[in-house]
Amino acid sequence: MASFFDNKARAAAAATNGASSSKTAPPKESQNLQPWVEKYRPRSLNDVTAQDHTITVLQRTLQATNLPHMLFYGPPGTGKTSTILALAKELYGPEMFRSRVLELNASDERGISIVREKVKDFARMQLSNPPPHYKDRYPCPPYKIIILDEADSMTQDAQSALRRTMETYSKITRFCLICNYVTRIIDPLASRCSKFRFKPLDQGNAKKRLEDIAENENVILEAGAVDTLIKCSEGDLRKAITFLQSAARLVGAVKVAQPKANGHSKKRKIIEDDEYEDAMDVDGTNGAMVTIRSIEEIAGVIPNDVVDGLLKAMQPSSRGAAYEAVAEQVTDLVADGWSATQVVTQLYQKIVYDDTLSDKQKIKIVTVFSDVDKRLVDGSDEHLTILDLALQISGMLAET
Amino acid sequence: MALLVDKYRPRSLEALTYHKDLSERLKSLAQSGDFPHLLVYGPSGAGKKTRIIATLRELYGSGVEKIKIDSRVFQTTSNRNLEFNIVASVYHLEITPSDVGNFDRVVIQDLLKEVAQTQQVDQSARQRFKVVVINEADHLSRDAQAALRRTMEKYSPNLRLILLANSTANIIAPIRSRTLLVRVAAPTEADICKVLGKVGKQEGWGEAEGLNRRIARDSGRNLRRALLMFEAVHAQNEKVTDKTPIPPPDWEALIAQIADDIMAEHTPARILLVRAKLYDLLSHCIPPTTVLKTLTFKLIPKIDDALKAEVIKWSAFYEHRIRLGSKHIFHLEAFVAKFMRILESYLMGMDF
Lengths: 400, 352
What we know:
heterodimer, A: alpha/beta, B: Rossmann fold, Zinc Finger, Delta Prime, domain 3, 14 helices, 52% helix, AAA+ ATPase domain-containing protein (chain B), P-loop_NTPase (chain B), DNA replication (chain B)
């Protein structure tokens, strides 16, 4: 399989010689326009970053050509879907992929009737034989895979309908459930699967991956920008990559704009490819740089001085007098459109790591935070909720 | 005759008067060829929609302005028929899924898949993808949001989404990580003044700098509201000066009256009186949250500083209740009663 990352030379070639890049440019035009998240989705198991334990286990099963039912769980952007798709591709190759793999996710109708009909029909279906010599390249083990993505949004009933199906057809079918919250999967299902926990990506791996992508796309990053990316995305690699792409567009996109006028023929498309690549190179050398600030802006991080301003307003002078100052700050905050959740998160970090507060105060304040978070999730009015939060904290700061 | 708000709505990114850097950013996104999914958020009246329409125009040219309204019928799993309105041009669709309440998932699934599975028909189109604009994305149910997740990835060659929301709090994390967040801050008062001045000049109305500034302050940095107030003032007065009073909306006047009532007397009889007025507001479709919020901010200046934090606390508490509960009047009344009690005990010198 021609993996995008296998030819690392591509990056080097592109960097040194703009003209030669056309040979190694992505094969299809569409790839240029793909979000990087899709473009750099791991093509094989080896490409999956940071989930060493899971990958080792899966690779061993790959060699043994036997697979258990699987349950992948972990926070968003850790590579769950990527892993199973990569595994399926390695197992079946492009030709058999369609007939052997059924992928259902929350965007498909997944009520109990679908489990009873579609899933069961697919599970029951006899295996088709791979074309001759195909087996030399891909293992093509004698079972099908049903991927149930976002399984935690399936109803309880639908999940229980799966129970017996999983067992009855286990000879020719394997299930892979993917979810964020393992607790939402009913026990009988969970006990039928071997569980794989996907941990949030650690700094090192995420950093390496982001740098790889930046290099491939000829994006120049300011020193420390990668760390900011990782901090803003909280272990969610997909988020980090989306941020990176947006930031890259932000600084260099105007020059990338390609002449789209009157495409003559198919040849034209290839030429456009070249120009696109060239433009990217020119971009890079021109020194358009992704700065820390631009990343923070995209991530919606509130500038430090704004949060500090609010904190300062909350400091006690006399309890009542704090109101005017706090109210003013909060009104501005809301009118500027900062998201309330972000305000709460950043305020929380400031307060919890503030050494001047006593533990007792912190305990009290943290309770307020939990209350406020719940209210925001329930969809309460942001202005009132934030104002309440700020005033309550201010009141607690005044207590000694 | 169109309202000023519509008449002077900027049509292109260049014509936008404030947040120049944001316009610049949107423009470069639109030109770069790989347009991402967007999640545009900000307070109302900040110009989210205007910016989106301008961006679409930047993407596709003036074709996006030729819109038609489609009425489509969707069938739920329980065989109920849902009627749903779609605003569409050749290049984009605009939907408000929260119109159909809990069935928004069905609409999202059916409609988006249908759009995503057909390629752009128009060969001369500038982009290969279609854009679906989803209004009020923060009111989408959890199920509907979950339905969006994989669709956004799988059909990305043919489909781009633009979600519009007032806040990102109700958007689930997986969606947030798949979109580019665009914050549209409310215009500053100076920005609003500039717009009002410009519009006034184009309409040939007398200039009143002080009045404009007062409108900007009263509008709470909401440009739409400011423009409507501006128009109202000019419609009611032949000649405006700096001192021309700005007529408040009826409902605001009524709430101010309620606040006075509450302050004047703290008795059950008074609650009864207030109730009639609250009912009046609700039956005129003023959202209960707006009522509570306005009432709170009308009451706050009238009371002692020491009480303010407490009142805000209970206001936020009952606002949350309104959101969760189903009978709004209960919670509004409860707030009134609570407020009276707090104030009374404070005046009596008791601990509350």
